[in-house]
């Protein structure tokens, strides 16, 4: 129904489907309506949902040193190495801030 609805933009359709899947996955876990499986990636017992926490967490840990975003390098910056910290916005699960890195980034 969502994909066929011409009143939605493609971004709205994508967002709506993601939200529906989140609700569906949460219900499966909450009401224990799914049989748990052994994940072939992380070998942990889990519900067959779109977002498997163990896999994501283990993948990020194992590949942290290889993270890149086009020409940028991702690295951990301790909070005390930031200044001019300003709150931007929040949603249900996170808060977003902007800040200046005291030591500067690569190429600065």
User: Could you name the ranges where pLDDT drops below 50 across 5 or more consecutive residues?
Assistant: none
Beta-sheet strand percentage?
A: 15-25%
Distance between the termini: 50 Å
Major sheet summary line = 2 strands, antiparallel
Query: What spatial form do the alpha-carbon principal axes imply?
Result: extended
Secondary-structure element series: HEEHEEEE
Sheet with most strands: strand arrangement = 1-2
**Strand count:** 6
Helix content: 25-40%
Overall mean pLDDT stands at: 77
Tally of individual helices: 2
Properties at a glance:
two-stranded antiparallel ribbon, alpha+beta, 2 helices, extended, two-stranded antiparallel sheet, 30% helix, 108 residues
Question: How do the strands and helices of this protein lay out in sequence?
Answer:
Layout: H1 10-30, E1 37-38, E2 45-46, H2 53-63, E3 68-69, E4 72-73, E5 82-90, E6 95-101
Antiparallel strand pairs: 1-2, 3-4, 5-6
Provide a short characterization of the protein structure.
This protein has helices at 10-30, 53-63, and strands at 37-38, 45-46, 68-69, 72-73, 82-90, 95-101.
Your description of this structure?
With 108 residues, the protein is an alpha+beta fold. It has a domain at 71-108. 30% of the residues lie in helices and 22% in strands. It has helices at 10-30, 53-63, and strands at residues 37-38, 45-46, 68-69, 72-73, 82-90, 95-101. The longest helix has 21 residues, at 10-30. The chain is extended, with a radius of gyration of 19 Å. The termini are far apart.
């Amino acid at each position: 129904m969502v994909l066929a609805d011409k009143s939605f933009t493609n971004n709205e359709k994508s967002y709506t489907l993601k939200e529906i899947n989140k609700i569906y996955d949460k219900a499966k876990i909450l009401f224990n309506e799914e049989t748990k499986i052994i994940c072939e990636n992380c070998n942990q017992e889990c519900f067959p949902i779109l977002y498997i926490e163990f896999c994501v967490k283990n993948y990020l840990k194992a590949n942290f040193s290889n993270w890149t975003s086009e020409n940028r390098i991702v690295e951990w910056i301790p909070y005390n190495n930031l200044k001019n910290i300003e709150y931007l916005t929040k949603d249900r699960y996170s808060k977003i801030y902007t800040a200046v890195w005291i030591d500067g980034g690569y190429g600065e």
